[in-house]
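Researcher: Quick sanity check before group meeting.
Model: Go ahead. Protein one:
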Amino acid sequence: MSLPLLSRIMMLFLVSVVQKIKRFGFGSPLNLGFPGEVTGRLNDVRNDMFARATMCFGYGLLVTPLHLARAYATIGSYGMLRPVRLTPLTEPLEETR
């Protein structure tokens, strides 16, 4: 297979890959309540061909270390997406799968 063909195939599946990445919480706020909290960035690849091409090379995605830790925790807990807290909990929080 040639490289242009592979990149075209990747661009076809990219929208579904980005949707799966969003389910891990990338690009959404963590709602910690601290000033200066950064949400990260996930470019919209549905209509922008340039954004699709850059996402194929690994650009267009900005992730905070806390977002990455949350994604690893979700994988480690068999798909249970738990809210992130930096303070001790007094009651259990709601989980989503």
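Researcher: Fine. The other one?
Model: Protein two, sequence then structure:
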Amino acid sequence: MVVDELGTEAGRHITYPGDTLERRLRNLLSAVDEPLLFVFDDFDQNIDDVAGKRPVLDDQGRGRVRSEAAEVLGAVLRAIRAEASPSRVLVTCRYPLA
């Protein structure tokens, strides 16, 4: 686990419950020596749907991401940008995202 490899002090900064997800991610990115790859696989699970059956798509065929998932993905992207990290994000989904 990444926290174990970083050591006790750095691990505390990453897992501190009072910090926002974005702050914890920024702490993680500043503590590691190598770029990280954040993988969000099968992101279709985070597209709004109609009664659990059909995805809700906009008029351009893009899926509307549930707010909770958008918040997590946004926190990861903002943390990477704020830390000027070479880390990357990979999202797999059957639909383009709105």
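Researcher: One line on it for the slide.
Model: Strands lie at 37-40, 49-50, 54-55, 88-91.
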